[in-house]
Write a structure and sequence with these properties.
This protein is an all-alpha fold. The chain is about 60% helix and about 0% strand. The chain has two domains: about 100 residues, Fumarate Reductase Iron-sulfur Protein, Chain B, domain 2; about 80 residues, no CATH class.
Length: about 190
């Protein structure tokens, strides 16, 4: 008997998605051997529906639907703990950033985490920095929760916990932030 050296079509996996994620993240995910140190050290792992090491495996297996359905990328705090603990030096924060970019360009998926991310980046594009009231109003409008959240907003404004106007950022600073964002995601 001769061994079948040709893999069946069911066992071959396209590497296009993996290569695209690797290029965007500047990582080589094939180096991951699923030790789960990234997951075990992640302060947000308990909130994630798919742990970081499993996300890498799903990317390698070209399971885009499960990768994009997961909330994990949107919950990443970008604390870099995963990168400092990974024996192969894989930075999951960069991988999650790449997956967020791909999810925005490939999907019409709407979840609260994605909406928050879009509002957050929008405020940074507009003002060169984070503007809490702008994000809050944007989220309230998109999720129609302004009426419910209005009393809390007034309380925060009165106590000076929520600034009414965005902080002043120099025009040079705003231009630099826009340039950095344009380099990171040229499609937007």
């Amino acid at each position: 008997m001769t061994a079948n050296t040709n893999p069946s079509p069911a066992t071959t996996v396209s590497t296009d998605f993996l290569n695209h994620v690797n290029a965007l993240a500047g990582e080589d995910l094939v180096r991951c051997f699923s030790c789960a140190r990234c997951t075990n050290s992640c302060p947000m792992a308990a909130e994630m529906d798919v742990p970081p090491h499993a996300i890498i495996r799903l990317v390698i297996l070209d399971d885009r639907s499960r990768v994009f359905a997961a909330r994990s990328a949107w919950l990443c705090a970008a604390c870099q703990t995963c990168a400092s603990r990974c024996p192969n030096g894989i930075n999951m924060s960069s991988v999650f950033d790449a997956l967020k970019e791909l999810a925005i360009s490939y999907q019409n998926q709407t979840n609260p985490e994605r909406k928050f991310h879009e509002q957050f980046v929008r405020q940074i594009r507009l003002f060169g920095r984070q503007y809490e009231l702008g994000v809050t109003l944007g989220m309230g409008l998109s999720w129609r929760t302004l009426k419910r959240d209005f009393p809390l907003g007034i309380t925060l404004l009165r106590r000076r916990r929520l600034p009414l106007l965005p902080g002043i950022s120099s025009s040079t600073g705003r231009k630099m932030v826009r340039h950095l964002l344009a380099q990171r995601s040229p499609s937007r």
